[in-house]
From TrEMBL:
PANTHER family for the chain: ABC TRANSPORTER PERMEASE PROTEIN MJ0413-RELATED, ALKANE SULFONATE ABC TRANSPORTER-RELATED, MEMBRANE SUBUNIT
Chief place of localization: membrane
Protein name listed in UniProt: ABC transporter permease
Entry superkingdom: Bacteria
Keyword Heme attached: no
ABC transmembrane type-1 domain: residues covered: 66-246
Length: 261
């Protein structure tokens, strides 16, 4: 049975945690201590970051950078979702797919997305396409592995029951395997969305001319320290919000889970 928490704890504890983090940040920025290898001499205060964020909010640059980053992330994520789910369903269900597709994918999986940047620049004539490819690579493997584990975790008794009732192979696949693996697939999609932002920012810092990652790196080169934190916070909020959106859409697409609970 699902544990129900008091309504107050759903927002009081997160709000208190965020407030404590901001207060600690303010303390470190005002006292500027030297803690061994870490120094806060150049750390901007929350007020400085708030002022920088307000300035950016009033500037047309915000929508300009956001538009480019969002387009790159969602294009790469959409392609990774299609490829990762299709490959994961095939590998998790069919032995021939596991034997032929999984070994080369396992060789590629440990390669970090940043290592693909030089090759993507050589493969694609457009820097935009190369950055979309980096986000695709970053999201592909979390989605793929989650889908494979979801398919493997489907109760064999459900499959046997469907077959005993006369369901054919592809109907079992569509009505038992896919719905049974759907929760794991949504988890992989949410993780992949977060990885998309990580990979995109890295690509924009190295090969981009627009976007939130480029804005953050440009702020560093110009020594605008509050703007660096603004860029970091934007990336965090966008990553958290887009992952939450994926999970919310997943819950809407899986009404049978709510009925079971």
């Amino acid at each position: 049975m699902r544990t129900r928490h008091p309504p107050s704890t759903t927002w009081v504890l997160p709000a208190a945690s965020l407030l404590a983090s901001v207060l600690l940040w303010q303390l470190l920025a005002s006292t500027r201590p030297h803690l061994g290898l870490i120094t806060f001499a150049n750390a901007p205060s929350p007020r400085e970051v708030l002022d920088a964020g307000w300035t950016l909010l009033q500037s047309p640059r915000l929508l300009f950078h956001l538009g480019h980053s969002l387009a790159r992330v969602f294009a790469g994520f959409a392609a990774a979702a299609v490829a990762g789910i299709a490959l994961g369903l095939a590998i998790g269900r069919f032995g021939w797919a596991r034997g032929t597709l999984l070994p080369p994918l396992e060789v590629l999986r440990p390669i970090p997305a940043v290592a693909w940047i030089p090759l993507s620049v050589l493969l694609f004539p457009s820097s935009e396409v190369s950055m979309m490819f980096i986000t695709f690579i970053g999201a592909l493997f979390p989605i793929l592995l989650a889908t494979v584990h979801g398919v493997e975790g489907v109760d064999a008794r459900l499959v046997a029951s469907a077959r005993s009732l006369g369901a054919r192979r592809w109907r079992v696949f569509a009505e038992v395997i896919v719905p049974g693996a759907a929760p794991a697939m949504v988890t992989g999609l949410a993780i992949g969305m977060g990885t998309c932002w990580f990979c995109l920012v890295t690509a924009e810092m190295i090969a981009g001319q627009f976007g939130i990652g480029y804005y953050t790196w440009e702020s560093y080169t110009l020594q605008n320290y509050p703007d660096i934190v603004v860029g970091m916070l934007l990336i965090g909020v966008l990553g958290m919000g887009s992952s939450a959106l994926v999970r919310a859409l997943g819950r809407l697409a899986m009404p049978w889970l709510g009925a079971a609970r």
